[in-house]
Please model this.
Amino acid sequence: METTATIAGNGHIAFIDGRAVREILPPSAAVDALEAVLSAGLDPERDSPRSRVDTGVGQFLQMPSAWQDSVGTKLLTITPANPALGAPVIQGLYVLFGGETRQPQAVLDGMELTNLRTSAVSALGARLLAAPGPQRLVVFGTGVQAWEHLKTFNDVFELEDVAIVGRRPAAAAALAARASAELGLAARAADASAVAAADLVICCTAADQPLFDGTLVSDSAVVVAMGAHEPTSRELDDALMGRAAVVVESVDSALREAGDVIQALSSGALTGPGELITLAELVTGKRPIPRGRPVVFKTTGMPWQDLALARAIVDAHPAVGGPGPGTSR
Model:
């Protein structure tokens, strides 16, 4: 549901629930919103790092960001024991402030916003890097993010073949069946060798070791790795990292959190941070799109991305910013 609350002297603040988040901003529009703020000059290198507090049963995370007349933060709790209590491991809200006085504007469902922005960031990188035309997609993982990426990539690309790879073949088969039934995709369960025929590969796992042999990846493929967020974890091997052009959201965040990048630099598969290409450099044309070798897009998730989508949602919300998707400031 959607509700509003009065702010003294300043109108109202909206609560935008998960269903409204999805209705207001479809995946392709989310990708466009991310590209638009980078085109307008937002610099991810200046974004704030996330902060963490131990709660005794998990962690509390805050992800603040500011851009133009907007400032916002995502607030999340991570409680590993929650499933035994019938609750999600991750729960959260997004709080957006804006205007000349930076007054509170809206509170959004944090999890739906996260699911949308994570897959939209992956799709933006892939859209910039992939060759035009129908795509053969391989997805590693069978959880929430695998499903979210299937929905978003189906909205952004023409997918002619989809292969799902999971640790449990039954789970991969179930996700493939769901993708076929709900999204109309030609989807099937597969093993890791499917990367050899892929145009796009998405890694959506909690793996701490490489998922596949990087020598199998074709020179024209784009590999998105979004699952490993710690220096000691990785989804991609040195064979791929050493032959690929590597794109990141920001050099700063990659060197702090992206295990695939950190370990490849440590081993010498990557010679130095100067090899890394940023998403903003691609969007603004400051660095060319690499050709003739695979491209890896390594993501960790950054606060500016949540802010960009929260702004777009609030701008398009009929009770807050405007009549529908596409409304601009």
In short: DSSP finds ten helices and 15 strands in the chain. The two ends are 25 Å apart (CA to CA). Confidence is low (pLDDT under 50) at residues 4-9, 323-329. The domain at 3-114+304-316 is CATH 3.30.1780.10 (ornithine cyclodeaminase, domain 1).
